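in:
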């Protein structure tokens, strides 16, 4: 969310979006062998998995935001723009800016905006949230999905974000919580503990690569020290019920393959073999997935 969805990882770079999630703050991949298309496709799949959570946040957890009448929204670290466009739908009168460092991903923002007939209201801007943010109109809402744990100095970024908001404007931040859960409990990779060990290895790898455990960050304290008020901090879940639809099935398979590849050196051989066999086989109709995110909201003081 800002925008991935599933529990993404720092595959080979130090950011939680698999390389994929490396966006929004100036560490773009520019190597000629980097597969931007694959990254964009994965980010789009991730975002699709958490779109119900976006709907819930808008409907139930931003009471100070009149989404039908606000005029300016910023999606910080927007990636390929799936959630950017969703925010534009929720805010039908707003100009929505998707900000990212990745030119290829910003191209996907424009593509999605055109496809959704939102091109006149959705704008893609190349910028680095750890550098000087561009001059923008005062924002009613800044949405930061899975990006604020990246900066070396998140407090400084939060102060910059506060200045982007108009007085009384709202920051929505979506961050890591528990890893994704696969059910039912008698599923072979769950019952054997292979899934849990894979997720634990991924979490440890992520913490090592970004230099800290993003789940343990005192976000409420950081928001307060940056000058925000009316801070809320809650955990939300999205359950994809059985039988899973095509996108969710594809997400499960890719999540397993990416995770195994990323933490292969930390996995037992039998876990690796069991997980890959699970990814190779058609999913049973009773398999379902629960994704969890920590969601914080805060406001820039009016005075």
């Amino acid at each position: 969310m800002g925008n991935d969805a599933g529990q993404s990882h720092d595959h080979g770079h130090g950011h939680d979006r698999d390389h994929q999630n490396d966006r929004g703050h100036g560490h773009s991949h520019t190597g000629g062998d980097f597969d931007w298309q694959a990254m964009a496709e994965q980010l789009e799949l991730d975002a699709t998995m958490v779109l119900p959570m976006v709907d819930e946040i808008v409907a139930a957890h931003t009471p100070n935001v009149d989404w039908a009448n606000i005029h300016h929204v910023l999606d910080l670290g927007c990636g390929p723009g799936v959630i950017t466009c969703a925010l534009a739908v929720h805010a039908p009168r707003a100009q929505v800016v998707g900000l990212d460092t990745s030119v290829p991903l910003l191209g996907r923002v424009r593509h999605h905006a055109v496809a959704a007939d939102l091109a006149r209201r959705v704008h893609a801007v190349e910028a680095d949230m750890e550098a000087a943010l561009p001059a923008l109109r005062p924002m009613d809402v800044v949405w930061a999905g899975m990006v604020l744990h990246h900066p070396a100095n998140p407090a400084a970024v939060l102060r910059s974000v506060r200045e982007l908001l108009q007085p009384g404007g709202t920051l929505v931040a979506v961050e890591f919580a528990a890893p994704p859960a696969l059910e039912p409990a008698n599923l072979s990779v769950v019952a054997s503990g292979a899934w849990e060990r894979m997720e634990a290895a991924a979490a440890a790898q992520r913490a090592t690569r970004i230099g800290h455990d993003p789940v343990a960050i005192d976000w409420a304290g950081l928001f307060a020290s940056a000058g925000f008020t009316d801070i809320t901090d809650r955990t939300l879940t999205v359950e994809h019920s059985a039988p899973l639809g095509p996108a969710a099935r594809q997400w499960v398979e890719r999540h397993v393959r990416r995770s195994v590849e990323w933490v292969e050196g930390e996995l037992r051989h039998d876990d690796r073999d069991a997980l890959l066999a699970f990814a190779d086989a058609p999913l049973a109709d009773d398999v379902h997935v629960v994704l969890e995110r920590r969601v914080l909201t805060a406001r820039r003081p009016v005075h």
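note: The first strand starts at residue 72 and ends at 76.
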